[in-house]
Every structure is written in structure tokens, then in C-alpha cells.
């Protein structure tokens, strides 16, 4: 099994369609779980759902091409076990934001998620992530510190439709970091594009 915080481009590239589609589906599921948005997404047809997935995939692809999204993978013999996605800001003073660690169901329970987390934390000078408060002890054992409750951007900043998804989350960060990180959130314009898909 291989874990590589920044695997060779061609190897990561072979798994990008799977990773981006999986993450897009996860984001749509999170949106569907929001009371203020559920009614809009519940009536989606299969065609509308596929368009929405492609739209989110397009956002992720754009971030990746621009160098703002990095991916670490766990794989063996052409099989993708799991991945970690983290966002970086051009300003080196900003911490990396660990957006997601995902291990495919068939490979869970073997420490792959912890290995991916260790790889990202060891690779990065500073990493932050958001988690529910019950996961604070887990991330503290991994070496992160509780930096406080996360304050989502305001409705006036263009996040009226998604800010509730991030309410009451804990901000965890590497020791010595101030918690400033490029948190990935869909803004109101992104959501409106999904709804007209």
C-alpha cells in the first residue's frame, strides 16, 4: 500500500475522475441534509443530479488545475483505497485546509484513514480542518490543537445558503498555527447554479 501526500501527477490523475465524482456526491448529500435546501434538491431528476455532480466536479477540477487543491492517495495495484483532499492558499502564512479524508467502504477498518491523515500532517507545515466537537479528542491524539469554534462566512459575504452546514464545528490546527486556512465552501452563486441544473 502506498500513501503519498503529493503522488506523482500521472498516478493521481488516473484516480481524479473517481475522487472528484465521489466528493461531489458527498457534497450534494450534505446539501440535501440541510433543511433550508432539502426541498430544492429532493425533487431532482437523475439528469438534474448528474448535472449538479458535473458542476461540482468542474469546481474541484478548476481548483486542482490552479494548484489550490492537492490530493494524497492510498492505492495498490491500480486499486484506490482512499484519498485525502486539502486546499492550499498562495500565501504561505495560511495553513492548508484538510477538506476530506475518505476511505472506500471495502477498505475501512485497516488504518488507511489514519495513515492518510498522518501523511498530510507530516507533509504540511500547518494544517487545519473542521470537525464535529465529538471528534476533537481523535484529532488531538493525531497532533492537532483545538483552535475554537468555526465561524462560517456571513450571508452578506455570499454564504447564506451554506453557512448552516458549517455551524457548530470545531476548528483544529497544527501546533503554532492561528487557524487561518482556505476553507472550501460552496457560495450562494454555486448553489444557485446547482439548482438550475
Give keywords.
197 residues; alpha+beta; Aminopeptidase; 21% strand; disordered N terminus; acyltransferase activity, transferring groups other than amino-acyl groups; GNAT_dom; GNAT family N-acetyltransferase; Acyl_CoA_acyltransferase
Helix content: 25-40%
**Major pleated sheet:** 7 strands, mixed
Order of helices and strands: EHHHEEEHEHEEH
- What is the CA-atom radius of gyration, in angstroms? 17 Å
Number of domains: 1
Termini separation: 39 Å
Name given to the CATH homologous superfamily: Gcn5-related N-acetyltransferase (GNAT)
How would you describe what is shown here?
The protein has 197 residues and is an alpha+beta fold. The protein has a single domain, classed as Gcn5-related N-acetyltransferase (GNAT) (Aminopeptidase), CATH 3.40.630.30. Helix content is 40%, strand content 21%. The chain is built from six helices and seven strands. A seven-stranded mixed sheet has the order 1-2-3-4-5-7-6, sandwiched between helices. It is globular and about 40 Å long. The chain starts with a strand and ends with a helix. The N terminus is likely disordered. One of its GO terms (molecular function) is acyltransferase activity, transferring groups other than amino-acyl groups. This is GNAT family N-acetyltransferase. It comes from Pseudomonas shahriarae. InterPro entries: Acyl_CoA_acyltransferase (IPR016181), GNAT_dom (IPR000182).
Amino acid at each position: 500500500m502506498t500513501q503519498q501526500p503529493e503522488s506523482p501527477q500521472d498516478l493521481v490523475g488516473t484516480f481524479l475522475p473517481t475522487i472528484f465524482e465521489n466528493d461531489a456526491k458527498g457534497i450534494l448529500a450534505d446539501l440535501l441534509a440541510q433543511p433550508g435546501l432539502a426541498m430544492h434538491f429532493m425533487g431532482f431528476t437523475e439528469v438534474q443530479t448528474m448535472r449538479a455532480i458535473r458542476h461540482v466536479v468542474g469546481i474541484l477540477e478548476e481548483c486542482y488545475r490552479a494548484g489550490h487543491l492537492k490530493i494524497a492517495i492510498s492505492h495498490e495495484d491500480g486499486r484506490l483505497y482512499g484519498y485525502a483532499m486539502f486546499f492550499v492558499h498562495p500565501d504561505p502564512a495560511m495553513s492548508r485546509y484538510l477538506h476530506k479524508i475518505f476511505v472506500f467502504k471495502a477498505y475501512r477498518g485497516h488504518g488507511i484513514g489514519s495513515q492518510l491523515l498522518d501523511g498530510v500532517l507530516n507533509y504540511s507545515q500547518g494544517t487545519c480542518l473542521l470537525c464535529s466537537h465529538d471528534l476533537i479528542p481523535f484529532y488531538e491524539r493525531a497532533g492537532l490543537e483545538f483552535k475554537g469554534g468555526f465561524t462560517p462566512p456571513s450571508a452578506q459575504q455570499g454564504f447564506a445558503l451554506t453557512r448552516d452546514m458549517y455551524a457548530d464545528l470545531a476548528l483544529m490546527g497544527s501546533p503554532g498555527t492561528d487557524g487561518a486556512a482556505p476553507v472550501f465552501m460552496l457560495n450562494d452563486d454555486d448553489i444557485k447554479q446547482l439548482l438550475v441544473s
